[in-house]
Design a protein that fits this description.
By secondary structure, the chain is an alpha/beta fold. It is built from 9 helices and 13 strands. The strands form 2 sheets. Strands 7-8-9-10-11-12-13 form a 7-stranded mixed β-sheet. The chain has a 6-stranded mixed β-sheet with strand order 1-2-3-4-5-6. One zinc ion (ZN) binds next to helix 2. This is MBL fold metallo-hydrolase.
């Protein structure tokens, strides 16, 4: 199994997971052109995708979906409320595959477990992908780590997880009004470096070896701050930061 982050940050998010000849795109928050260009540059023919999976309906996760789906006869998987909102926004696809939050489904040996996450969207989810004894977790926009999230992610070998902001940098930020800061740091907003560090520390003893930090705020975080906060005393875990303007390269 391998995965690649096509781009991550508040200007757009998308990643591809591949295993056993199956390829799925998770979120389509870059422009359709960027998605296509970055997939092609990474050796992925968009026509070879087996499915698109959505985490939630925010623009930075679906921005390129409407245009991309015009020429791509690929099913889009989403929770009922997410699909309803995205369809209402004018996205039409060859087929919608609606699944209940928490449901498990599979594509030829690549199994996907969805799980509910607390975020200010209608019905957001995270995913765990499993293929031949290997597991990869994807946890994007999330306000806090629930017991369920930690349980679902226990045992993953690799993890993409949001590390949105540094507490001190968010506090000191002068561009954002107080209400926006409140939303970001609320229990239905985004994960701070410290929250992500606590989750990684909890998952490390259960086999977590590689972590890609994503959705870093341009103003209220930086890759060095995020990586060092999460690395802490965890010499056993390899940590990199995904970037907004380029892919992170394939990770096996
Ligand atoms: Zn969001
Ligand atoms: Zn987001």
């Amino acid at each position: 199994m391998r995965f690649i982050v096509l781009g991550s940050g508040s200007a757009g998010n998308a990643a591809v997971v591949e295993a056993g000849g199956i390829r799925v795109l998770i979120d389509a928050g870059l422009s359709a052109k960027q998605l296509t260009d970055r997939m092609k540059a990474s050796g992925i023919d968009p026509a070879s995708l087996n499915a698109v999976l959505l985490t939630h309906e925010h623009g930075d996760h679906i921005r390129g979906l409407r245009v991309m789906m015009k020429n791509l006869p690929v099913p889009v998987y989403a929770t009922p409320s997410t699909a309803m909102v995205v369809r209402g926004g004018g996205v039409d696809t060859a087929s919608w595959k609606i699944f209940e939050s928490g449901a498990q489904f599979s594509f030829n040996g690549l199994s996907v477990q969805s799980f509910a996450v607390p975020h200010d969207a209608v019905e957001p989810v995270g995913y765990v992908f499993r293929h031949e004894e290997r597991a990869f977790g994807l946890l994007s926009d999330t306000g806090h780590v629930t017991k369920l999230i930690a349980e679902r992610l226990r045992g993953v070998h690799a993890l993409f997880v949001e590390a949105n902001y540094d507490d001190a940098l968010l506090e000191a930020d002068t561009k954002r009004p107080w209400s926006t800061k409140q939303r970001i740091s609320s229990r239905h907003g985004h994960l701070s470096n410290a929250q992500t560090a606590a989750l990684v520390a909890e998952l490390a003893p259960a086999g977590l070896r590689r972590v890609v930090l994503g959705h870093l705020s341009r103003d209220c975080n930086c890759p060095i701050t995020a990586a060092s906060a999460v690395r802490g005393a965890l010499a056993s875990v390899e940590i990199v930061c995904a970037e907004q303007d380029r892919t992170c390269g394939w990770w096996e």
